[in-house]
């Protein structure tokens, strides 16, 4: 093991943050979870503590980072998805507040920020979130298994409406692409639903999370006062997967060197391995990167 580190995780109980905390603790590091209501204790053994802080309190977060004697910081912040129309604004504010708090603090060690796949570049120099018909066309290209995963994840998060939308989307696509004997009977409904899906999935209110993550990348690019690396997970990130410890890093150069992440995926558990490796080794300073790994090893 590398030297024992003291690591702050911003957003410790989220989908990504929780895996990062698990991975850090399993390697014997000490973790401080920071968010509005971080868990006070962790469900797995290890040196964990929580400090409550709303990131809108830039001064408060800055003081926690200055006083915390941290060796590394991981940001797994995301705006709540409860009000879709507010996601972009709340997300941009949150990422901006984190940036200001870090720059105003005395902390200058490694920082890994988790953003979104929409910021990855195609070889033609266009970012995924700027591609034509984003995100409808890109959902349409997902394999069935990923739509099954997304729908189950939404049920797990209590978003039943969204989960049903995803199941119906999968059915309508199947009706069009893999018709059976009687599919023509339901074709008008399938076509209507796909039209509705196109409208929904290309509407700006559905893209808030992806676009605020891109804004976060823009905020950090060019900053040289402190260490940072920006991770855009691959498009098919799946939680509750398997930790294989296998992953590949793809560094983005805005000309598509990390394009592989657009068509591929990783389990959250393996992404946490990549993040903690970066925390320990700090090899991707000032880089935008993604990491891919095996998926489809269980139900999805
Ligand atoms: N394929 C992809 O590209 C992909 C897929 C999934 C996630 N992601 C990205 O991964 C990152 C993390 O997402 P996630 O799904 O893990 O998020 P999440 O599950 O929604 O968790 C978000 C965390 O942020 C904290 N938080 C929210 N507002 C806060 C505030 N005002 N002050 C302090 N803490 C706050 C929450 O804790 P409290 O409630 O205690 O405050 C929570 O721990 C995001 O950038 C997201 O876009 C990317």
Automatic annotation (TrEMBL):
InterPro entries: Epimerase_deHydtase, NAD(P)-bd_dom_sf, Polyketide_Oxido-like. Residues 8-77 form the NAD-dependent epimerase/dehydratase domain. Pfam families: Epimerase. GO terms for molecular function: oxidoreductase activity, acting on the CH-NH group of donors, NAD or NADP as acceptor. SUPFAM superfamilies: NAD(P)-binding Rossmann-fold domains (SSF51735). It comes from the Eukaryota. Gene3D superfamilies: NAD(P)-binding Rossmann-like Domain. Belongs to the avfA family. This is NAD-dependent epimerase/dehydratase domain-containing protein.
């Amino acid at each position: 093991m590398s030297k024992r580190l003291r690591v702050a995780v911003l957003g410790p109980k989220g989908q990504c943050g929780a895996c990062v905390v698990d991975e850090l603790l399993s390697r014997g590091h000490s973790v401080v979870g920071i968010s509005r209501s971080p868990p006070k204790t962790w469900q797995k053994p290890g040196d964990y503590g929580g400090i409550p802080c709303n990131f809108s309190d830039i001064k408060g977060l800055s003081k926690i980072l200055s006083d915390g004697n941290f060796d590394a910081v991981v940001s797994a912040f995301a705006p709540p998805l409860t009000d879709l129309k507010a996601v972009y604004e709340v997300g941009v504010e949150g990422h901006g507040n984190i940036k200001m708090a870090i720059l105003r603090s005395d902390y200058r060690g490694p920082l890994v920020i988790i953003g979104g796949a929409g910021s990855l570049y195609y070889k033609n120099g266009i970012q995924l979130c700027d591609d034509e018909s984003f995100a409808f066309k890109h959902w349409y290209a997902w394999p069935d298994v990923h739509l099954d995963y997304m729908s189950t994840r939404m049920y797990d998060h209590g978003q039943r409406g969204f989960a049903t939308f995803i199941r119906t989307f999968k059915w309508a696509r199947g009706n069009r692409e893999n018709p059976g004997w009687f599919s023509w009977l339901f074709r008008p409904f399938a076509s209507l639903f796909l039209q509705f899906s196109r409208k929904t999935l290309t509407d700006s209110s559905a893209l808030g999370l992806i676009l605020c993550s891109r804004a976060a990348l823009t905020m950090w690019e060019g900053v040289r006062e402190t260490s940072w690396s920006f991770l855009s997970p691959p498009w098919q990130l799946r939680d509750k997967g398997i930790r294989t410890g296998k992953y590949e890093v793809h560094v983005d150069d805005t000309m598509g060197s990390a394009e592989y992440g657009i068509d591929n995926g990783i389990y959250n558990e393996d992404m946490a391995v990549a993040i903690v490796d970066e925390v320990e080794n700090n090899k991707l300073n000032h880089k935008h990167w993604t990491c891919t790994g095996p998926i489809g090893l269980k139900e999805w």
